[in-house]
Fold this protein.
Amino acid sequence: MNGDPLTRRRFLKAVGTASAIALGVGLPGCVSGKTDILPKTTTSLTYTISGNVRTKFADFIPLPVTVSPSLKDYTVPAGLSGVVAAERAGLDDADKNRLASDLFFLRPSSDAQIYDLYKNAEKRGAPVVVTTDAVLHAYHILFDYALRILEVSKLSDAIVGLTDLMLAESLSQLDDGVPELQDLCMKNVAFFAVAKSLLGGSMTGLPADARQLAEAELRLIDAHEGFADSPVFGRKEDYSQYVPRGHYTRNEQLERYFRAMMWYGRMPFSLYKSLPGGRKEPDKESTRRAIMIVMALNGRAFDLWKTVYDPTVFFVGETDDLSVYDYQALIKKIYGDQIVLAALTDDDKVLAFIEKAAALKAPKIISGLIQDDEDKAVLKGFRFMGQRFIPDSYIFQGLVYDKVGTQAKPRAFPMGLDVMAVLGSERAYAILDSLGETEYANYVKQFEALKAGFAALKAEDWTQNLYWGWLYSLLALLNEKGDGYPTFMKREAWIDKELNTSLGSWTELRHDTILYAKQSYTVLATGMMPTAEAKGYVEPNPELYGRLASLAQMTFDGLEARGLLTDALSDRLVDLKEMLVQLKAIAEKELTGTGLTSDEYAYIRNFGNRLENITTFPPEVADAVESDTDKYMAVVADVHTDPNTGQALEEGVGYPYHLFVVVPIDGSLTLCQGAAFSYYEFKWPISDRLTDEKWQEMLSNKNAPEPPAWTKSFAA
């Protein structure tokens, strides 16, 4: 659609108009319209939202799937005799036997991007199959670039301005000369001085004590070797987290923003501190420091804080820790409308504040070092720009030590399969069981509790932000396909392939949100020739296309409402939504055996070019947020840390797989070619957390670990 921007916006809005109790997930500002979650007719815990959902960000408007699959099963003759487009596909006997047996297989490729594989197939005249992998990857690109553009054009300047104001106000509090608070004020000056230096600023003119504290902290951040005692906070911090990764390696501005936001997101002002023997006591000093910071956060500074925090809530979610909003309300309750610095010398009021704050929500994700004999209450506290609750880290936290396993045999690492199993994939659970993962003490009990908790979620939970909405889209891959679906989709190997797709897309989600998402930690235990007008195919999963289309619309509306939608993003989100609506319509026709039109076949043939146009940006955008790393789709993200072994769990996407599948088209069996995710999961030292650049180098030099063994069911 090539009309003016207003017409395009109207089009996007028009198309598609048609309990968190168990998890304790907060939904501030979410207002439910008519919403229903209907169990699907499968044995998996996957759901469909059947009515519009109104949230504080943007409406989620589902595109319902109304067709019932009604295709008959088919078989492929030995040697692919009579299969259209098979003769010139360059297949050996083993390939042909696999197609005759499973009807599809995947082969590694050296293509840099998914669209390259499609464009090359089109040039050879090979019929193509549009895959769910390709469109999920397209959404990842737009989600990731929306964040990059926002960070470069707005958030990084806002965090610089905020830091300057907070440092100046902390110095003013130091100058107020309340003797009992001087040391605490000095530490707060050092706290903001560290951020200022990470953002490229100077510490010239600061008090010597504050500068020395900040410089000691910066040396640990620069070394990023792992756990060490924080000079400013007096507790262990994992300094390996400060290595810029994800898309934050693309330029210096993003690297600086990453480090400062990681500092603001991780460093805790705790309500309690640990004592020997698993005891605790109120941490009055840390709490006073947090109150002073919130007192300083007013006027222009508070506006800048919200400029950074509020939009990122739309992408990822609310903080998992006590926030500025929590402390503002408590300060008013304990100290009244007017508070002066000297009021913080009153121990009774500070203790009353701690008691009230301790009654508020507890963090659900451990993101630091804690021993199994420590009181978990020491985790509760304030973070200036706390990292966000994400459901998959919550799942991980519930399925590792000290929730699962024993001191003698702790479950130190989760697996991506844990997430998909809890979200409803019976195949994921079966693989976990075959690997012995379910044999750890308490695993089954914890798994069943988590699964029940997610089964109780409501529509407004799944649509509360873009992170949750992305996961909701992936649920459409986890329900096993039954009668009426194409025969290849009913093979166990295809179930594994869809599981691989969901994990590949989830890996991209974790990559894109690596700065904001709160990471979980284990508790420390003590050749074809061109043929004219080739007819292609769309992987018939209309549920996924519909969900992703609704998510694209929600992304568009949420950004537009906040003045954050650039022209480049607007055009691409509109094009993606239009593509997904078209693919959904084609998939529905395929599931009922309805023939496609010549225009629809032409649309499939040109998919590679459409995908490239959606996932590439003009020079004025690319120059600001890209590097040569973005020439390749391969990305990596660490998603969990085990301090016992000093290792992180890495999730990676590599070069795209080349998919071959035999499908029925107009009464004839046809060999189609497409693209799919390659997915990797492995452990890696936290002192060397991987960047995209190093991961791509490992792949190029063939030093990357092998994909999980269970993927051999579909990958040659």
The longest helix spans residues 132-175. Confidence is low (pLDDT under 50) at residues 1-45, 527-531. Residues 128 and 673 are 5 Å apart (CA to CA). The chain has 25 helices and 17 strands.
